[in-house]
Design goal:
heterodimer, A: about 170 residues, alpha+beta, Alpha-Beta Plaits, Gyrase A, domain 2, 2 domains, 4 helices, B: about 1000 residues, Ubiquitin-like (UB roll), FAD/NAD(P)-binding domain, 5 domains, seven-stranded mixed sheet, 24 helices, elongated, SoxG (chain A)
């Protein structure tokens, strides 16, 4: 059986900046923003996941939310960018256990072997747009928009029973 | 012990008896049996009636190509399935099976009268018979055809099973676990590649399961098989799936697999899915599908007891079952000789081997004669006898393709036939790979590939175990090489191989009347040789037309047995080369597949995504009636007591207009547009001017397509110089964002602006009504919301009841209105707080229906209801939303197109029925003069129509040709029960045209 847990909200932002602004943004956020799509970097509770050529998902502890907003506001004039809070937009599930990867193949069409530890990717989970992160061999997080979450969560539980049945 | 079971023989478990029922009678079987092998072990050959003629039919094959032995199966309560192939269904204790297409019983079937009238039911019967009179079609012909169509009974109960699905990626997918597939798997597996090996049977082995006497690498076939399966099972990089059919081969090496998980179990584990659909993306595919044995076409080739020689060999060697006591063989291929020898060795008397060929390998002939079998070369079978089981066959000599002498009768209870072997091309054919006719072997072979695949073994007419193993290993090595890995083809030494050869025929020569011969090609659809000839006589030249005229190959087996025979006969009848006649196309699925497997998890509550807002649970508790809006479900109205929709909506409208209504507006699309070029981007996307809009203020935004037609609209707030909060329609949210991104990325990559969907970040509660501010004011902190400080069309951040909020003063009802946005986690909390606090104003929750009425009273359009993708801003009467001074915006050039500025376009107007109580039907057509002859000229149609409680009368909006010029004039709406007269009102605003109520 695989453990499926909804994680509490922290602070999450969608961050967009042109290539020339990565250095300043890294400094403001305190994490070197990875520039390979799928790449992830962290510093303390702050974590950056590169989702596109100019797009990152930034995570921080809830208590650091205002500090993050302020830090980016401070560089806006010289480094124009877009920082939009999306903490409440999505639910994030932690999926862990020996069969976690196999459980995810119920809905993820990507080749899971290419989702390496410490990377993340935009994908689908059974028609639902999702962001999948592999934190360890057998531990993933799956973020889906709030109103899609019940559908995704229900499927995870339905499919999890197949492992109990052994088939 | 069943009468036809040989003790200790085969791969069935002789120490594990199983009991199931067939037509209510208990049948003794062994674990490992199929329904077919168990029935044969008990001497039961008659298992069903044929589709069209209701002829008694038996078991023809031992595989998934079976056209005859289709039975109804019941695997427990609610688990009935028609048309299960008895040759594939494994037995278990408690399984119930029943024969089909017979009434009242299998042995006594009324429908068999069709067989005596068979000359009536020739090819094209339906086309010719049900032509006229035309009036008979609906009441007589179609019901008749529908009643006659379809085999088996549909299940009457809802399927209690559930079905699973998975995605999978691998280096090499090998389809078929016979000799070729196993050799490919060993080669690929040892190279370290990730391998998936699938086979539709319950165990790997393919033809090796039926040929235990062959020796591989010094071991007998089954010992070698055990060792090979053990080696493969021990490889972490190899996944073996049995009972798994590759049903379709799609683009870019995507192969669909249907894995049967529980159909063979008496007591499946709780929560186990019945089947699982796998979508496998393989870098390389090895098709090792093998070949199917082809029937010979002669009179009476469909009687129970007539079966494929290879099937008899399988029943003997794999299941330990003899298919009869005394057999006769008719063949054009060596393989049936070996089958005869195996049967004879097992104690079955073989009375005769009839071979159509003049020259047969002398060692075979000598062996047969030495075993006491009568051999007839250059001969034909002209008929069989026996009603529910064959009792004899008639043999005659042939010279130059014609019967050339007297016939004689061979007594037998089983006829084993073999017309050669047809490579299974189905999956290759799915890829649209081209086929090539091999004139020497008389088979179609895979030719030019369109996908990354290898074809190995009998599937490309490589015969004999030695050559097949080598071919499979080579295919495995080729796949490995394509992956950039190294791995030599595994080699094998094979002895006692029984490679054969043979000839391919059209129907066998006969001395009887060919028009009376019942020589079947397609057993499942009851198509005979003479039907093909008739089709050709009646003008069908292409095999595609012959197929459709005769239904040859159109049954669920897709002509696995019949295609080549039909083709040979058509080619002969047309006097044209086989190549010119062509081959019909195979399509997925390879074998019949349940809808359950295809639907997977998408059933019941999980059938389709239902998006819900954070306030949905409250609405449900309050008994709201919901309606789907895009993927969302939204509360449509909140009935109280016995109220119907109209009563509830009237009450909700009145409460909102007189005091206060609350509405869940969370589903509206939201996009945050941020960056130094945000205002420039907005100017280019929307028709409206944005430059002068001050931060903290809102504006109605209108979005056109490049064609100038209205695509979407919504209120847009400017939060700061560089940040806009855009709202879209509920259904339009994804496509508006996509359209914006499309322009941004392809047309204006230079703009420094970025878009983020915030639809689900915010929960939104709309408060409307004269008491809206009174409710909100005491709850708001950090903002003065008086009319002077926070006028209509304002936006600001504040807190509402302590919750962080983005507050809009906007209105879609014409009343004083606010929309409170809070982070979604607080949505329900906000709603309940406002609900509690609003009790003093008799706050009324309202749904989408009331929202529609209130906005229609104000003449506000709804995209997709009052517009249909062909409506311009001028058509909709909202040209005021166009920034005339702007140099450009999406759609601007199109608005000057001649047809968009021409007169006579349909314009959105208001309609008031002459009888104020009459509510028009939305979609109803509008005409000028109801007395004009039919067909009348339609001027347009009603787009929105409601009862207006505030006005005490009905109101409607409509798009009407030159609508505004018709102000005050009458138009007519013809309906089934009379014509309705209505008066055009150029303005769509019905209520509070001055907008005074907004300014409270």
């Amino acid at each position: 059986m695989v453990e499926i847990t909804r994680l509490p909200e922290e602070a999450r932002f969608s961050f967009r900046v042109a290539a020339g602004g990565v250095a300043a943004a890294s400094k403001a956020f305190g994490v070197d923003l990875p520039t390979t799509i799928g790449g992830m970097a962290a510093n303390g509770s702050r974590r950056a996941l590169c989702l596109g050529p100019d797009e990152w998902q930034l995570d921080a502890a809830a208590s650091e939310r205002d500090a993050v907003v302020a830090a980016f506001a401070g560089i806006y004039a010289d480094t124009p960018h877009s920082l939009v809070e999306v903490t409440d937009r999505e639910f994030t599930y932690q999926i862990s256990g020996e069969q976690a990867e196999e459980l995810l193949t119920v809905g993820v069409p990507r080749d899971m072997a290419l989702v390496t530890v410490g990377s993340g990717t935009r994908t689908l989970f059974d028609t639902v747009p999702a962001i999948l992160v592999r934190e360890a061999d057998n531990r993933f997080t799956l973020s889906v928009w709030r109103s899609f979450a019940p559908h995704a969560e229900e499927l995870l539980h339905i499919a999890n029973k197949e492992f109990a049945a052994g088939l | 012990m069943s009468a036809f079971r040989i003790a200790g023989k085969g791969r069935v478990n002789h120490s594990k008896p199983v009991r199931f029922t067939f037509d209510g009678k208990t049948v003794q079987a062994l674990d490992g049996d199929t329904v077919a092998s168990a029935l044969l072990a008990n001497g039961i050959h008659l298992v069903g009636r044929s589709f069209k003629y209701h002829r008694p039919r038996g078991i023809l094959t031992a595989g998934s190509e079976e056209p005859n032995a289709l039975v109804g199966t019941t695997r427990g309560p609610g688990r009935f399935e028609p048309n299960t192939r008895a040759t594939m269904q494994e037995v278990f204790d408690g399984l119930k099976t029943e024969s089909q297409n017979r009434w009242p019983s299998l042995t006594m079937d009324i429908g068999s009268v069709n067989d005596r009238m068979h000359k009536l039911f020739s090819a094209g019967f339906y086309y010719k018979t049900f032509m006229w009179p035309r009036s008979f079609w609906d009441k007589v012909y179609e019901p008749f055809i529908r009643a006659a169509a379809g085999l088996g009974k549909s299940p009457t109960e809802e399927d209690p099973d559930h079905y699973a699905s998975r995605f999978h990626h691998c280096d090499v997918l090998i389809v078929g676990g016979g000799a070729a597939g196993l050799a490919a798997a060993l080669t690929a597996g040892r190279s370290g590649a990730s391998v998936v090996l699938v086979d539709e049977q319950s165990e790997l082995g393919g033809s090796l399961l039926s040929e235990p006497s062959i020796e591989i690498d010094g071991k007998d076939a089954w010992s070698w098989l055990d060792a090979t399966v053990a080696e493969l099972s021990g490889m972490a990089n190899v996944r073996i799936m049995t009972r798994t059919t590759a049903i379709g081969y799609y683009h870019q090496n995507m192969v669909g697999l249907c894995q049967k998980l529980t159909d063979h179990m008496a007591t499946p584990p709780a929560d186990a899915p019945r089947e699982r659909l796998w979508r496998v993306r393989a870098k390389q595919v090895v098709l090792a599908q093998g070949a199917s044995e082809k029937p010979l076409v002669f009179d009476g080739n469909d009687r129970p007891g007539v079966m494929m020689a290879g099937a008899a060999q399988t029943y003997l060697n794999r299941f330990g079952v003899t298919v009869g006591r005394y057999a006769a063989v008719v063949t054009s291929h060596d393989s049936a000789w070996y089958a005869a020898f195996d049967l004879l060795t097992a104690g079955v008397k073989v009375n005769a081997i009839v071979d159509t060929r003049a020259q047969v390998d002398p060692t075979l002939v000598d062996s047969a004669r030495a075993l006491g079998i009568d051999v007839f070369l250059s001969s034909t079978v002209t008929g069989t006898s026996g009603r529910k089981r064959v009792t004899s066959m008639t043999v005659a000599p042939v010279t130059d393709g014609k019967v050339s002498g007297g016939s004689h009768v061979v007594a037998c209870d089983t006829v084993l036939m073999c017309g050669g072997w047809t490579p299974n091309l189905h999956l290759f054919s799915h890829t649209k790979g081209s086929l090539i006719w091999d004139d020497e072997n008389k088979v179609y072979l895979p030719h030019e590939k369109t996908e990354e695949c290898q074809v190995a073994g009998a599937g490309r007419a490589v015969w004999g175990i030695a050559d097949t193993l080598k071919d499979g290993a080579d295919a495995g090595a080729a796949a490995v090489k394509s992956l950039g890995k190294s791995g030599a083809a595994v080699t094998f030494t094979v002895s006692k191989d029984r490679t054969g050869s043979g000839e391919t025929h059209r129907e066998l020569p006969t001395d009887g009347d060919p028009g009376s011969a019942r020589a079947f090609i397609d057993f499942q659809n009851d198509v005979q040789a003479k039907d093909i000839r008739l089709a050709v006589r009646e003008g069908m030249k292409s095999i595609e037309h012959v197929k459709r005229y005769t239904t040859n190959g159109m049954a669920t087996d897709q002509g696995k047995l019949s295609n080549i025979n039909g083709l040979m006969i058509a080619s002969d009848a047309l006097g044209r080369d086989v190549k010119q006649v062509g081959l019909t196309t195979f399509r997925p699925p390879y074998t019949p597949t349940t809808f359950g497997a295809l639907a997977g998890y998408h059933k019941d509550g999980h059938f389709e995504i239902t998006r819900k807002t954070t306030i949905d649970s409250w609405a449900e508790e309050k008994g709201a009636v919901f309606e789907p809006v895009a993927l969302f479900r939204r509360a449509r109205y909140f009935p109280q007591g016995s109220e119907d929709m109209h009563a509830a909506v009237n009450r909700e409208c009145k409460a909102t207009r007189t005091s206060l209504g609350m509405f869940d507006a969370s589903t509206l699309g939201k996009i945050e547009v941020v960056g130094p070029d945000a205002v420039e981007f907005m100017n280019r996307m929307y028709t409206n001017p944005w430059t002068k809009l001050q931060p903290g203020r809102c504006r109605y935004g209108l979005l056109l397509g490049e064609d100038g037609y209205i695509r979407d609209d919504g209120v847009i707030g400017r939060l700061t110089e560089d940040r806009f909060h855009v709202t879209t329609t509920t259904g339009g949210a994804p496509r508006v964002l996509n359209m914006m991104e499309d322009y941004l990325q392809t047309e204006w990559p230079d703009l420094k602006v970025w878009l983020t969907s915030t639809t689900e970040q915010w929960a939104v509660v709309a408060l409307n009504g004269p008491n809206a501010r009174k409710l909100l004011e005491p709850l708001v902190e950090g903002l003065d919301i008086s009319d002077e400080a926070f006028p209509h069309m304002s936006v600001a951040d504040c807190t509402v009841g302590g919750l962080p909020a983005r507050l809009f003063r906007v209105s879609f009802t014409g009343e004083l209105g606010f929309e409170v946005n809070v982070p979604a986690r607080y949505g329900l909390q906000l709603w309940e707080m406002l609900w509690e606090a609003g009790q003093q104003y008799d706050i009324c929750p309202y749904g989408t229906e009331t929202m529609h009425v209130l906005r229609a009273e104000k003449g506000y359009i709804i995209i997709g209801q009052d517009t249909d993708g062909t409506v311009t801003p001028d058509d909709a009467g909202i040209s005021w939303a166009i920034g005339k001074a702007k140099p450009d915006f999406v759609g601007k050039r199109s608005l000057a197109r001649p047809d968009l500025v021409a007169s006579g376009r349909k314009q959105l107007i208001g309609l008031l029925t002459v009888d104020p109580k009459t509510v028009l039907e939305e979609g109803a057509q509008i005409v000028d003069d109801p007395k004009q002859p039919i067909p009348m000229k339609m001027l347009g149609h009603v787009t929105s129509s409601y009862w207006s409680e505030a006005l005490g009368r009905s109101i409607a909006m409509a798009v009407v040709e030159d609508g505004r010029a018709r102000d005050g004039k009458s138009v007519y709406i013809p309906m089934p029960n009379g014509v309705i007269e209505a008066t055009v009102q150029a303005s769509t605003v019905f209520y509070d045209p001055e907008g005074a109520r907004l300014k409270l």
